[in-house]
Amino acid sequence: MSTITPTSTTEIAQAADVAGLELFDLMNEYQYEQVVMCHEPYTNLRAIICIHNTTLGPALGGIRMWPYQNEREAIVDAMRLARGMTFKAAVAGLNLGGGKTVVIGDPRKDKSEALFRALGRFVDTLNGRYIAAEDVGTATQDMDYVAMETPYVTGIDSPDGGSGDPSPMTAFGVFQGIRAAAKKTYGTHNLDGLRISMQGCGHVGSYLGALLHEAGAKLTVTDIHQENIDGVVEATGATVVAPENIYDVPADIFAPCALGGIVNPETLARLTASGDLKIIAGAANNVLDNDQTGQLLHDKGILYAPDYVINAGGLINVSEELGGYNGDRAKKRVEKIYDNLTRVFDLATDLNIPTHQASEKVALDRIASVRPIADVYTGRARTSWQHKPIALQG
Ligand code: NAD
Fold it and tell me: Ligand 1 mean position to 247 CA, how many Å?
């Protein structure tokens, strides 16, 4: 059996261009298990459920609703995101695989109860191989509709046993990750007096800002929305700079909590101009523009906390719904992000490789180590029709 190759998710889109989107070639190259096209004409549901890998457990991943230009774009996005979930769950120590759903449509105009219930019925046909959750363009109400048709959904309304808004747990996990990065860099995870510049005061940034302030960090923040800044300044007394100036603030730690792709050679030159920056650790997804920038950070001696490791708090939290949600237990599990990142940082040191490569290795090694146990026959997987004798060929 071939293994999952450690490549960046942007490569999947490039490979799709080269291959002209030959789906089976892509599935083979990046080891996807299943891509399901879901269509329901009365609601105009057009959705793709992608399951990347289920070695560790059922594939859990969000339902993204987005006005994709065409179905090729939607398929590639579903594949890219599903594969990312495999790595995220594996490093987080969860018994979950990677999957994702994308729904082609405008979340402001095209949502309906029937649409999400139709999708729920398709999710149900997978018998638990895929478990749905919220993502960009979907909300708790949509998950409640999905839940009317299948038990294989998380992120439902709290009174029904759901885990609620994931942002506080994501922020708590990022906080733990920043502490782990400080310990690796300075020998102590005490953040007292450290200068932290934070980009983005939204759902995660607002909770993270409060935790960092409580821990004694000196905050400089920015956002494009004044009301979001006001909330953080009121809670923390942070210094504020204009969005375009956040890369020029002398700081020990940069915490990106807004957009992806914002650490690139140009911004890195500005972030490091003062010579003080030691750590990049925040909630944003796809922080690095590409893997070469990860190598550049390594060469400059700046510790980068890989995005999907440090921002896994939301996933860990929602996965707790599967065994009956308990907030205290979820928080204890999210706290482990400190240990997960420490393992990644130490492996990167031992092998002298960038941290984004070390986290891929942690994920791939875990999946590879668990895969052989599937050879053990448990006695539950067979039904009588499978015992009919067959004539072997050749
Ligand atoms: P959000 O939309 O609530 O917050 C993002 C904030 O960034 C907003 O306040 C927005 O105004 C601000 N922003 C946008 N462009 C900006 C710019 N150019 N400069 C400065 N600020 C800008 O989103 P969120 O839920 O807080 O998530 C933040 C990041 O963390 C995203 O990248 C998201 O994908 C990632 N993430 C979030 C969660 C979660 O649980 N919410 C989990 C994992 C990862």
Answer: 17
381 CA distance to ligand 1 middle (Å):
43
Parallel, antiparallel, or unpaired: how do β-strands 97-104 and 59-66 relate?
A: parallel
Helices (H), 126-166: 140-147
- Residues labelled catalytic: 100
Residue 225, ligand 1, Cβ within 6 A: yes
Which atom of ligand 1 is nearest to 307's Cα?
44
pTM for this prediction: 0.91
Indicate which atom in ligand 1 lies nearest the CA of residue 258: 7
Domains of the chain: 10-157 (3.40.50.10860), 167-310 (3.40.50.720)
Q: Which of 112, 132, 129, 105 is nearest to 120 (CA)?
A: 132
Q: Exposure of 39 by Cβ count < 10 A (0-12 exposed, 13-18 middle, 19+ buried)? A: exposed
Spatial separation of the C-alpha atoms in residues 364 and 98, rounded to whole Å: 13
Sites in the chain below the pLDDT cut of 70? 1-10, 16-19, 21, 158-161, 381-389, 394
Nearest to 308 by CA among 11, 93, 88: 88
Angle between helices 226-236 and 203-214 (to 10 degrees): 20
Burial class (CB in 10 A: 0-12, 13-18, 19+), 23: middle
The answer to whether the Cα torsion of 310, 314, 320, 322 is positive or negative is negative
Which atom of ligand 1 is found nearest the CA of 165?
Answer: 40
Write the pLDDT tens digit of every residue in 66-98.
Answer: 999 999 999 999 999 999 999 999 999 999 999
Distance (Å, rounded) from C-alpha 78 to C-alpha 48?
7
Q: Six-digit token pair at 323?
A: 């065994």
CB of 228 sitting under 6 A from ligand 1: yes
CA dist., res. 381 & res. 12, Å (int): 34
Q: Are 322 and 154 in contact (CB under 8 A)?
A: yes
* C-alpha 177 to ligand 1 mean position (Å): 17
